Structure to design on (96 residues):
């Protein structure tokens, strides 16, 4: 049985030691698909389009429809996850 996971809101599976999209069979490594949740492409800086560039944040993920997968990491190393991460991202965006 193939391993199943998610990538940017899309179901993926491992076939012959390669991750591919379940719906298209396209290799994940060769893809720049938009988010499977909001259907937007990453920004030119590589950020989730719905978050944009967040001041004072090292990196972040919106969760792509899976709230438990959302996170915000600060330069100090502090990581906030889940619903609290969505709140932290919104607060950081207001500081912009």
């Amino acid at each position: 049985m193939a391993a199943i996971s998610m990538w940017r809101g899309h179901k993926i599976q491992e076939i012959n030691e390669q991750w591919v999209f379940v719906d298209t069979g396209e290799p994940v490594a060769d893809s720049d698909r938009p988010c499977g949740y909001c259907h937007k492409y990453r920004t030119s800086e590589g950020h989730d389009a719905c978050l944009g560039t967040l001041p004072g944040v090292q990196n972040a993920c919106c969760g792509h429809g899976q709230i438990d997968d959302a996170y915000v990491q600060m330069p100090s190393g502090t990581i906030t996850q889940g619903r609290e991460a969505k709140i932290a991202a919104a607060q950081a965006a207001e500081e912009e």
Summary: Residues 12 and 24 are 10 Å apart (CA to CA). Strands lie at 4-7, 10-15, 18-21, 59-61, 71-73, 79-81.
